[in-house]
Design goal:
The protein has about 120 residues and is mostly helical. The chain contains one helix and no strands. It has one helix at about 1-115. The longest helix is centred in the middle third of the chain and has 113 residues, at about 1-115. The model has no long low-confidence stretch (mean pLDDT about 85).
């Protein structure tokens, strides 16, 4: 009687063990799928971040190029301003000379009128 009961128990134990192993396999598969999804998400984030970095580097390069062009333009404008300042100084000197001559002439005319 005891042997029959023992034989009867063994298949149940095997079924429980099989069921437990199946549950463990399923849990491991879920964990593996979660890890795969996490890795895929991480890889996607890394790719997105690398693309964004490349975009920012390209934008920085364009900005640096524009900055160089603006600096060159600024130097050219400063040179032009220096030339204009020199021309203005010449014109002021000429105007001062002309005003002085006009004052001298006006004084001469006035002295003639008094005679």
């Amino acid at each position: 009687v005891h042997g029959a009961a023992e034989r009867h128990k063994r298949p149940e134990s095997r079924e429980r063990r099989h069921s437990a192993l199946s549950a463990a396999d399923a849990h491991g598969a879920r964990q593996g799928a979660q890890l795969d999804q996490t890795a895929e998400n991480d890889n996607s984030w890394v790719r997105t971040t690398l693309l964004r970095i490349a975009e920012l580097e390209a934008a920085l390069e364009r900005s640096n190029f524009e900055l160089q062009a603006l600096r060159k333009q600024n130097r050219e404008m400063e040179q032009t301003l220096e030339i204009v300042d020199e021309e203005n100084a010449k014109i002021r000197r000429e105007m001062d000379r002309t005003n002085s001559q006009l004052a001298t002439f006006t004084t001469w005319v006035q002295s003639r009128q008094l005679l």
